[in-house]
Amino acid sequence: MSPIEIGAISVAAIVALIYLGVYIPIALTAVSFVSIWLMRDNFTLALNLLKIAISESAMEYPFATIPLFSFMGLVVSKAGLGSDIYAVMSAAFRRVLGGIGMATVGANAAFAAVTGSSIASASVFSKVAVPEMLKYDYNPRFAVGVVAGSSVLGMIIPPSAMLIIYSFVAEQSVGEMFIAGVIPGLMLAGAYIGAIWVMGRFTPGFVGGRPAEDYVPMGWGEIARKTLPMLGLIVTVIGGIYLGWTTPVEAGAAGAALGLLIAVARRSMTWRGLWDTLIETGHITAAILFLITAASIYSRMLGLAGLPRELEAILASNEFSFVVIMIFYVILMLFLGTILDTASIILIVVPLFLPLIEPMGLSLVWFGIITVIGAEIGLLTPPLGISCFVIKATLNDPRITLKDVFLGALPFAAVMLVVLVVLIAFPSLSLALL
C-alpha cells in the first residue's frame, strides 16, 4: 500500500478505536506508530519519532499553563464561587420572563472565566440552578437544557483547556488564543440569553416558570461579597494577559495563588482537600500531556503519509471556494461530535486541515476559535453528549431522563451553530482584541 492509503486507513482506524472505547491517546499513538513503521519499513524511525514527540511535549514552557489553570479551576469550584455568582445573577434576572435561565447563563459565563471546564460547570450548576428552576415550575427539559447549553461556555471563554490543546497542536500562542476567545464567548452567552427571551415570548410552554413572589432583594454589601472574589480572579488572569503584564503561565500562577487564598479565607479548603486537589490536578495534567504527545506523533504520521497535501490537492483540483471548504469542515465536526469528544475532534481534524488554511492567508487563531466551538456542539448532541451525561448523573433524578436533557439542549446547540456561522463570516470578531 502507498503511504497515502496507509494514512487514510489509519485515520479511519483511530476514529473506529475511539468509538469502540479505546483511550484516545492510546488509539492515536498506537495507530500512528504502526503506520509510520509500515510506511517507512523502519521500526527504529517510528520509535525515534515517538521519543521526539514525548520530549517536545513535556519540555514546552507554555505547557505549564495546564496544571496552573487546572488547579485554579478546582480550587475555585471548591470555594463555592459558582454558587455565589449564580445567586447574584439570579437576583439581577429574577423578575424577567425566563430570568432564572438567563441567570444560569450569566453565572456560567463568569464561572467559565476562572475554571475553563465544561464538565465542572455542568456539575456545579446541575446542583445549583436546576433545583431552583424546578422550584418555580420551570419546564424540566428547559432547566436541564439551559445548564447543558451554557456549560459549553467553559471551553471557549478563557482559560480553556481546549484552547490550550489547540494552541499546542497548531503551534499558536496560548495568550492569543485566550484573548481571541473572549468576544466569541460573550457573543455565545448573549445569544443564549436572547434565545431564552425569544423562547419565553413565543414558546412559553417549553420554558414554563412563575413569578418569584417570595424573593428577597439582595443588598449591595452581599452582592459585593459574592462577586468581588470572582471579579478579582478574572481581572488577574484575563486582564493580566490582555494588558501584557503577565504571560499565560504567570497569569495561571497568579490566578492559582489567588484562588487558593480565597478558598483559605472562606475556610472551604482543608489540608486533606488541598491534597486531593493537587492529586486531581496531577491527573488532569497527565491526561492532557498524554493527549498532546499523541497528537504530536499523529501529526508526524500525517506528514509522512502526505495526507494533508493530498486533501489540499483534491480541494484545489475541484476549485472549491472558502465557503464550501468551511461548510465541509463544520459538517465533519458535527458528524464527529456525535461519536467523539471535543479533544478527539481537535486532535484528528486540525492536523488535516491546517495545511489547507495556512495557504489561504487565514488566521490560525481564528481557525482555532471556529474549531473549538464547532467541536463543542458535540457536547450537546447524542449519542455521546458528555455534558448531557454529566448533568443526568449529577442530578440523579428519576423524573428527568437522558432524553429530556438532550431535547432540552437541542435549541442551545442550534444557537451555537448560528454563532459559529457568524464567526466564520466575520473573522474580525474573533481577532478584534488582538
TrEMBL record:
Keywords: Cell inner membrane, Cell membrane, Membrane, Transmembrane, Transmembrane helix, Transport
TRAP C4-dicarboxylate transport system permease DctM subunit domain span: 12-428
InterPro entries in alphabetical order: DctM, TRAP_DctM
Spans through the membrane: 12-38, 58-76, 96-122, 142-166, 178-199, 252-269, 281-299, 320-353, 365-393, 405-426
Keyword Membrane annotated: yes
Entry's Gene Ontology cellular component terms: plasma membrane
Subcellular location field: Cell inner membrane
Entries under Pfam families matching the protein: DctM
Mode of membrane association: Multi-pass membrane protein
Keyword Transport: yes
GO MF annotations in UniProt: transmembrane transporter activity
Subunit description: The complex comprises the extracytoplasmic solute receptor protein and the two transmembrane proteins.
Family: Belongs to the TRAP transporter large permease family.
PANTHER family noted in UniProt: C4-DICARBOXYLATE TRAP TRANSPORTER LARGE PERMEASE PROTEIN DCTM (PTHR33362:SF5), SIALIC ACID TRAP TRANSPORTER PERMEASE PROTEIN SIAT-RELATED (PTHR33362)
Role description: Part of the tripartite ATP-independent periplasmic (TRAP) transport system.
Protein name as it appears in the record: TRAP transporter large permease protein
Higher taxonomy: Bacteria, Pseudomonadati, Pseudomonadota, Alphaproteobacteria, Rhodobacterales
